[in-house]
Amino acid sequence: MDDNAFIVFSVGPVQSFIWAARSLRDLWTGSFLLSWLTRQAMEPILAEHGKEAFIEPDMTRDPMSREELNRNLRSPCLPNRFLAEVPADHAEDLAEACKQKFYESWREVATCVRDQLTGEIHKRLFQSGTNGERFIDAWDSSVSLIWDAQIDSFFDVRVAVVPWGDCTPQLLESLLGKRETSENWKNAKEEDKLWTDRAELATRVHAAHKAIRKVTNYRPAPDPRGMFAAKCSLLGTYEQMGPAELGESARFWETVAKQVDIRGTKVRSGERLCAVSLVKRFSWPAYFSHELNADPRKMRLEDTATVAAVEWLREPPELDPGEVRKQHGVWSGQWLHWTKPNQEDEDKCPGEISDVIKRKRQKQGSPPTYYAVLVMDGDRMGRHLRGKPGRKHPKAISRALATFALDEVEKIVVAHLGTFIYCGGDDVLALLPTTQAIACAKALRDTFSELWSREMAKSEYRERATLSAGIAVVHYKEDLRFALQTAQQAEKHAKSSGRDILAITVCRRSGEHTTALCPWDFSETLNGWVKAFTPSGQSKTGASDRWARHLYQELPVLKGLPRDAVCAEMRRQVNRAEEDTRRLLWPDNPKHAGEELINEFNDYCDKMKAVPERNFTKDKLLENFLTLCQTAAFLARRKDE
């Protein structure tokens, strides 16, 4: 049948919207809001043609339905793109309706936030006395001048419509080139091949459309005095709301930070936000709490200091941030690092909690200060989607990705004491304590592979799917945006190094940053090192990493030596280590610890060379291996020494 058409829809910018965050709650809210808006954009197609019209993602279990959100409100698992198959006679109208529905839903959320913020600012700033009325006038003026302009110009929705009737086999061959010659294609029906070629063309048309740079129509208006406000502290492309004059702006936002509170959500001291950042910050208390009948206080996520110290907090005497918040209405991971009680003005630490922290520090030492950001992404998913002709194949892939996102990812992250942020199918974002990061990444990768194999077996597709991952280990005081960018760069490094591999970047506060690659099959060895270096019941200090530091310091010399000489130096350094260190790292053969390390080095090199796309010199392999040795010790230590 040639009377159908494909609709390909996407929205951007994704990264700059989600990752413009200074807190985990901002980060998660950005993901949730974007998933919500994409789901609203699907509504015109769902209403007319149902869930089966969607090829990607799988909508048989609508992740943003009331049922799924009631089951797990913390899991925004809808990508910012969809592919649907609809009748051609009204495909253009449906595509336009999807686009308009997205913008209408965005404006609805923004208007709700604007109205509640305006009400609070009028009420609180008027009561504050000094400059209150002038600040209110400045807010109202900025709302009338730039609020709608910022809201309407931010998102870029791209929609492509490709009617089947126009896509003849001859045209498709001229545009796409010769078809694949794999067994999956040779044995397929001609109608299935034609369906897949048309879907491929729709995807390419959409990609070409996205490649055309958006020309924004945003033109900020000056205030009544002809002044333009400074830029937003989160989204530097837009001006902050409120007074334009710098001194007045600073006083206005400090007053807002102290006075304005919408159901537990505030502006932080020092922040000066634009309309888009304000909608992102306040969308939950102002809009979703009513829309979904959920208490926004229950959607709170812990700060990065708490993520870093979660294992430390669980050791007796246990300190549960959730329970502290229930009893005292406040919790801050910053308290763990105060040398004196209430040394900060914000979020005063209750006296009894301060006493518990003091006792824990005396018993356990200072809490960890580093945490891990994990970013994962599927490899060559586009090729897999085209790997077998016909509609059933991409639907099977969509089902596998939906099951992974909805049923497995958060469960695995939580089991490793982490904070789950987002999974759109084959992409994952989570924050974890450093000692759990390697094991969590491996568990996610193995679960993904298992689900994929099980689902693909039903459609007789034999190609294995893989994941690449990046981990950034950063200090809790680092800007969250830097941490996210570093993790993404690590993931890109894994992709460019042959895919199906893990890249780990450690960012020390001293300024030293190191990156190393770890094949998935070697990650269990690496995780074993982490456990050996971690203080435990077997050893209060864990294994010493002195031998690893010495070898890393000798790296410039070792790179110029023959392999036998390198192995001899490895053997010498390890065999000099304390007996406890050798026993913890190689419990089965501590007397020959040097040989065990050399065996692991050889195993690492073999696994790195296993993929034809990887082409590493012996010096690069040595550097990566010794960096991993030091990385394991740092993941276990979790703080500077």
Q: Can you put this structure into words, describing what you see?
A:
With 641 residues, the protein is an alpha+beta fold. The chain has 25 helices and 10 strands. It has 4 domains: 4-291, CRISPR-Cas system, Cmr2 subunit, D1 domain, cysteine cluster (Alpha-Beta Plaits, 2-Layer Sandwich); 310-364, no CATH class; 368-507, Alpha-Beta Plaits (2-Layer Sandwich), CATH 3.30.70; 529-641, no CATH class. The chain has helices at 15-18, 24-49, 66-71, 91-127, 132-154, 169-176, 183-186, 190-211, 246-259, 275-291, 304-308, 310-314, 321-328, 351-364, 381-385, 392-415, 434-458, 480-496, 523-533, 546-553, 555-558, 563-575, 579-585, 593-609, 618-637; strands at 4-12, 54-56, 81-87, 156-163, 370-378, 419-423, 428-433, 467-475, 501-507, 513-519. The strands form 2 sheets. The chain has a 6-stranded mixed β-sheet, with helices on both faces. A 4-stranded antiparallel β-sheet has the order 2-3-1-4, with helices on both faces. Helix 17 packs antiparallel against helix 19 (523-533) and helix 24 packs across helix 25.
Features:
641 residues; alpha+beta; Alpha-Beta Plaits; 4 domains; 6-stranded mixed sheet; 4-stranded antiparallel sheet; 11% strand
Give the proportion of residues in helices. 40-55%
Query: Which term fits the overall shape?
Result: globular
The total number of structural domains is 4
Class derived from helix and strand content:
alpha+beta
Biggest β-sheet: strands ordered side by side in the sheet: 6-7-5-8-9-10
> In the CATH hierarchy, what is the class of the largest domain?
Alpha Beta
CATH superfamily of the largest domain: CRISPR-Cas system, Cmr2 subunit, D1 domain, cysteine cluster
- Give unreliable regions as ranges: none
Indicate the multimeric state: single chain
**Proportion of residues in extended strands:** 5-15%
Q: Count helical runs.
A: 25
CATH architecture of the largest domain: 2-Layer Sandwich
The separation of the N and C termini measures: 69 Å
CATH topology of the largest domain: Alpha-Beta Plaits
Summarize the main sheet.
6 strands, mixed
What number is the mean pLDDT?
92
